[in-house]
Structure formats: C-alpha cells, structure tokens
Amino acid sequence: METARKIVIVGGVAGGMSAATRLRRLDETADIVVFERGRYVSFANCGLPYYVGGVITDRAALLLQTPESLASRFRLDVRVDHEVVAIDRAAHTVDVRNLRTDAITVEVYDRLILAGGATTSHERASSSIPTHTLRTIDDVDHITSTLAATGSPASAVVIGGGFIGVEAVENLVRRGLAVTLVQRGPHVLRPLDVEMSSLVERELRSHDVDVRTNTTVVGAEHGVASLSDGTEVAASIIIDASGVHPDTTLAASAGLAIGFSGGIWVDAEQRTSDPAIYAVGDGAEKIDAVEIDAMTIDAVTTEGGSGGILVTMAGLANRHGRAAADSIAGVPEPVEPALGTAIVGLFETTVAMVGWSERRLAAAGRAHRVIHTHPDSHATYYPGAERMHIKLLVDPESDAILGAQIVGGAGVDKRIDVIATAMSGGITASGLSRLELAYAPQFGSAKDPINQLGYVADNLASGTTRSIQWHELDTEREAGARLIDVRRPDEFAAGHIPGAVNRPLDELRERLDELPDAPLIVHCQVGQRGHTAARLLGQHGFDVRNLDGGYATWLAGVSAFAAVPTLA
C-alpha cells in the first residue's frame, strides 16, 4: 500500500478530524499535522444552540477532543490558533500563521486536505447591541455571558430563518427572552416548499415569536433594531444566523477549481483539481443524488460538471473525511451522492427533508408529481398520536422518489430516514407500499404513513386516481371546473374553500343528480375521502380529480401568501 509520507490537514471539527483519525487507523507511520485557526479542534457544533438554551448544561460535554487527547490516542500533531494562509502547489508547501505570535512558517506536505468549512454570508449592520454568530465555542461563550449580564425583561433578534436560526429562536425562548425572527426571504427554512414552511411559521408564532419575512435588519442602536420595513423591535442581543457560504479563499488563491455550486470542486474520492489536494466538509461541493438521476455520473464528477450541490451537514463531513483518508491510504471507496437529508426540532414540531423541493424541480424544468398526506404518527386509538404533514416528490415517468418534506411531531425522524433509505436503494414511490415496517399501535399503524404514501403513488402512477395541487386550483376553476367538498356538514361549516359546494361522501351516491355537468374537483380534509369520492364519481362517468392533500394542504398553502397563491 502506497502511503503519503506527510499529510497536512487544514481545519478540524467533523471533516478534518474524521480524515485525521481514519488516516491514523490506516497507517501508523504517517506524519499527520492538523492546523486549526480556532482555539478548539473538535467540538459538537450541532449542540451549541442547546447549550445556549440550557438543555446541555455542561460546557465540557461540547468539547469532544483536545490536541492533547488526539496526540495521546492517535499520535496527531494538532496545532490550534494556526491559520494556513497560502498554498504553493508546485513546491507542495503551505504557509502557516501562528495567530498567537503572528509568525509565519512553511510546512511541506505530500498530501493536503482542506477542511476549512464555511464562513458567514452577509456583513452585519452597524450595531451598538451585542451581536454574535452561533458557530463556535467562542460564540456560545460570548452569547451566554451577554445573556447573563442582560437584565430582565430581555429581548433578542435572530437574523436568518435557516436551521441555526430556528434553533437559536427556540433556545432563546426557552431562556425566557422575547424573540423576533427576521428572515430576508419570503419564508423560513428556505429548502421547504411554501405550504410546508407555513406550518413551521405557525409553530413559531404559537410560541409568541415575532416572525418578520421579506425583511432585513438595517441598523441596531440603544436596544432597538431597525428593520427594512420601517419598523423597530426591541433587542438586548442579536444572533446573526443569516447563513454561510463555502470558505474557498485558500483554494481559489491556489488556483483550484471551484464547482458549479460555489464550493471547492472534488471528484468521487474527494480529490480537487490538484490530485495531491483533497477537500471535505462545508467548503467542498457534493455530488447531487437527484441531479445524477437525470445525468450520467461522469457528467457530474468531471471537472466543471454542473451536478454539484452544497450540503452543510456533519454526517456528510465525517463520511467524506473518511473517504479522503481512504483514497490517500490507497484503499479508495468512492462517496455516494448526497441526498441532503436534514432534520431540525422546533418546540413541539419536527421538520425534516430529503432530496429536491417542488420549487427547485419547477425551476429546473424537471417533470414531477406531488403527493401530500396527513397521517398520524401511530394508531389513533392508542393515546398520544400526533399529526404529520408529508410531501413526496416523484418522477412521473420512472416513479423514482425525488424528494420529501415532513412537518409534525413524533415519528417524523423515522419516516424521513425510511424515505432517504428508499432513495438510496432505488425503491420507487409505489414500492413504498410494499415495505414491511415494524408495527405496534404505540409506534405506527398497520398501514404505516410510509405505506400510505406508496398506495397514493401507485394509484397516481396507474391512473386509478388523478389529482391537482392546491396552487393549481384557481386556474382550474377559472377554466370551468367545479369544487365539491365531500366532508361532513360540520367540517364544512368550520371552514371551507370559497366557492366549494358541500356534498358529504356518505350522501354522494344518492345526490349524483345534483352535481353539475362540468369537470369536478373533489376534496376532503386530508385527501383520503376525496380519493374514495373520485373513484365513486369516476365510475359514474364524471370527469373528476382529487385535490391532493385536501383542505389541510390548501389551507397551509394559501396561508403563506397575502395574495393569490403561486409557486413563488
């Protein structure tokens, strides 16, 4: 086995330390040096918001390894407060600045791994209010000391409604602060489609979070944050979670290829355009699993290919660090394309996603079929069942699963992992109906929510049922379609789509002569009774489609807009 004499790793935490420790397990003789510009080389960055909120009470629990422990166990030369400032590819050297002394030294490498991560995306508005990011141990130290010094009542502004932003909101509320969430875009958790994001915003507002979308912070002075909509909100502290972008400065300066997505281009073994240099973690581009479903793998992994994405997840960083180490050690194992599986908790709600959204598919001009279901987490007769809202994206030609989003309570994590596994294994949407999943009434249903998705997918693929989406309803009605609400009269009275006519499912056979001679769109609360109504009416000769996801999906969709709903 051919092994590089000296491996230099730029950056620690997930990707860098995974590469370093894997290399040591593969090669006891290698000289492995890790340069980390921060004070901490290995810490649980995903746990930082929960330390701020007091869920994690022991700061030391966040510190996974130290330079001393890594030297003792793995014989790694770890140097914190050292920043690599330049790469000389011809000489195989890096210039390293000691941030304590400002001295610069030159280090030789045989193989170089870049694990520099990401950096903040936006410049902060000028502020006299304490303003912090939430990405490092130093950040949480500053935040907790600021909160400890802040008198009551305290208030906070969180900039950015992404994963870190909503986690910060939850934990600041847990500490008793009044929180305003300021989101530059139209919806929080941008990877979600709008009808799913509106459920998240509903959860935020139910905990008295002041959600401001299409808004930015333009100034912050004397305890008040000024917003771009002309309003002002109180702020004792500001958390800047406005997002990150790949830190490619070092790579670009060295002439390494930058990928289509803006991250460092890498091949399937994490090699950059220089075969002696590898890149892993948030700064490196990932191979997109859904993209290569429509392309060849060569088109994605060839330098300059357009199939790359950015996925800032610790699991992928660890896995890709390991892959880089395997390649350097001469036992390469090409990485699997990335699905972008993600999950976040928010108060009593769990939000999860995998693959592409409907918005992204539409923007790419890619054909897709949409399925909404609203199942309970387990058998409803067993106490404690919680509602889930599931959205599945399917290729109408191949029946391949293109993505999924779930918002709900218990059971969301299990279902998103099953869907991600199905995508990895090539199981089709209809194939979900045939999965044999564990069942007991406190854990699931005899027809698990995953199986239900498969049944709906199979009905649509076979043409047994036709459906339309909530955002297509107005266009279809303008073309002459009539909307029939098949819920019970009490449900209809509690709230209904304007212009709908109530014809309860249990009375439908006896009232067929009351239905207009026009294309019909039927719906119930969540889609199941609508499907039964569509089958019944179709067999009586009506031109009928089911409103996918029923009234619940329509209501979530239109609540995201002040005007006519679109796929914005």
Description:
The protein is an alpha/beta fold and 568 residues long. 28% of the residues lie in helices and 24% in strands. The chain has 17 helices and 32 strands. Strands 5-2-1-9-20 form a 5-stranded parallel sheet. A 5-stranded parallel sheet has the order 11-18-12-13-14. A 5-stranded antiparallel sheet has the order 23-24-27-26-25, with helices on both faces. Helix 1 (13-26) packs parallel to helix 10 and helix 6 packs across helix 17. The longest helix is centred in the middle third of the chain and has 15 residues, at 314-328. The protein is globular, with a radius of gyration of 26 Å. Mean pLDDT is 89; it is low at 294-300 and 563-568.
Radius of gyration from CA coordinates:
26 Å
Averaging pLDDT over every residue, what do you get?
89
The largest sheet, given as strand count, sense and whether it forms a barrel, is: 5 strands, parallel
What fraction, in percent, of the residue positions are helical?
Answer: 25-40%
Proportion of residues in β-strands: 15-25%
Shape descriptor reads globular
The number of helical segments is: 17
What structural category characterises the helix and strand content? alpha/beta
Distance between the termini: 54 Å
Spatial strand sequence of the major β-sheet: 5-2-1-9-20
Give the strand tally: 32
Task: Pick out the low-confidence regions.
Answer: 294-300, 563-568
Task: List descriptors.
568 residues; alpha/beta; 5-stranded parallel sheet; globular; disordered C terminus
